[in-house]
From TrEMBL:
Keywords: Amino-acid biosynthesis, Histidine biosynthesis, Hydrolase, Methionine biosynthesis, Multifunctional enzyme, NADP, One-carbon metabolism, Oxidoreductase, Purine biosynthesis. Homodimer. NADP(+) binds at residues 165-167. Residues 6-120 form the Tetrahydrofolate dehydrogenase/cyclohydrolase catalytic domain. Residues 139-280 form the Tetrahydrofolate dehydrogenase/cyclohydrolase NAD(P)-binding domain. This is Bifunctional protein FolD. Transmembrane segments: none annotated. GO terms for biological process: L-histidine biosynthetic process; methionine biosynthetic process; purine nucleotide biosynthetic process; tetrahydrofolate interconversion. Catalyzes the oxidation of 5,10-methylenetetrahydrofolate to 5,10-methenyltetrahydrofolate and then the hydrolysis of 5,10-methenyltetrahydrofolate to 10-formyltetrahydrofolate. Coiled coil: none annotated. Pfam families: THF_DHG_CYH, THF_DHG_CYH_C.
Length: 291
């Protein structure tokens, strides 16, 4: 292996220690940060992620609540619950686990969350703030990737970056964050012709396509930084990313593993966003500062 591993578990530990200290300081002033998580349906992977989010809150001094609903919950019932949480002073962050069942309009649900409590950073107000370079809650996965690049001291200003994937929760915000940091950014996706011609020229490749082996060794510039956001299963059921790790690690300069790379950072940045929401509410003495 020639590439240096960027370890999301190790970096998470450092950031989470800071979260715990900030949460304790805020709690001492009478404001315990609170996160509400809403899970609809019985997708096993979503259940694991939600459980890990609640556990992370418990371990770092954040209050949390979790509502689990059957897959046939109506959109109106979900919206009513969000409305109640928007007005709940003990709750600073609200998160609806995605994906939602097909009969629920996820855009409508996300827009129903108060932007000040949208710790996923998916609300159109937060997405628009990111687009226009104003402070906002940054979506947790791309925010986590930025922290990993910073921790590994990867130069971003003037770098050529390729993001593979154009989803609202990873690809698009990832591209905007890299652009904000001064990179020259190309977004590639399932309709891109000759993907390798883009990735071979890139200093940084972020793979978020949801497809195994989308990036192979012959598609990577020697020494490039490769970030794997993918979460797939191989033919034996083992968790793997979008990157052919075994071959790419021999060419790249830095690489993230799956598991133990970007995944844990997603939950870490959720804690950071929730704490920030609580600190902002407390600073503005909104009714929601009362724990
Ligand atoms: N409301 C949201 N829904 C979804 C988000 C999100 O940020 N907000 N992101 C993904 C899923 N996700 C968090 O919700 C998530 C995915 C993966 C991990 C993680 O820690 N992965 C581990 C492996 C876990 C395993 O063994 O299965 C790793 O990579 O090491 C955390 C969070 C979609 N939905
Ligand atoms: Mg895509």
């Amino acid at each position: 292996m020639t590439a240096t591993l960027i370890n999301g578990n190790a970096l998470s530990k450092i950031i989470r220690a800071d979260v715990a200290a900030r949460a304790a300081a805020l709690a001492q002033q009478g404001c315990r940060p609170g996160l509400a998580v809403l899970l609809v349906g019985d997708d096993p992977a979503s259940a694991v992620y939600v459980r890990n989010k609640i556990k992370a809150c418990e371990e770092h001094g954040l209050h949390s609540s979790c509502d689990r609903y059957p897959a046939d919950l109506s959109e109106a019932e979900l919206l009513a619950r969000i409305d109640a949480l928007n007005r709940d002073p003990a709750i600073h962050g609200i998160l609806v686990q995605l994906p939602l069942p097909a009969h629920i309009n996820s855009h409508k649900v996300i827009e129903a969350i108060a932007a000040a409590k949208d710790v996923d950073g998916f609300h159109i107000a937060n997405a628009g703030a990111l687009l226009t370079g104003r402070p906002s809650f940054r979506p947790c996965t791309p925010y986590g990737v930025m922290m990993m690049l910073q921790a590994a001291k990867i130069p971003l200003s003037g770098a050529s970056a390729v993001v593979i994937g154009r989803s609202n929760i990873v690809g698009k915000p990832m591209a905007l964050l890299l652009l904000e940091a001064g990179a020259t950014v190309t977004i590639c996706h399932s309709k891109t012709r000759d993907l390798a011609s883009y990735t071979r020229a890139a200093d940084i490749v972020v793979a978020a396509a949801g497809q195994r082996n989308v990036l192979r060794a012959d598609m990577v510039k020697p020494g490039a930084t490769v970030i794997d956001v993918g979460m797939n299963r191989d033919e034996t059921g083992k968790l793997c990313g979008d990157v052919d790790f075994e071959s790419v690690k021999e060419v790249a300069g830095h690489i993230t593993p799956v598991p133990g790379g970007v995944g844990p950072m997603t939950i870490t940045m959720l804690l950071v966003n929730t704490l920030t929401a609580a600190e902002q509410a407390y600073a503005q003495r909104l009714p929601s500062h009362i724990a």
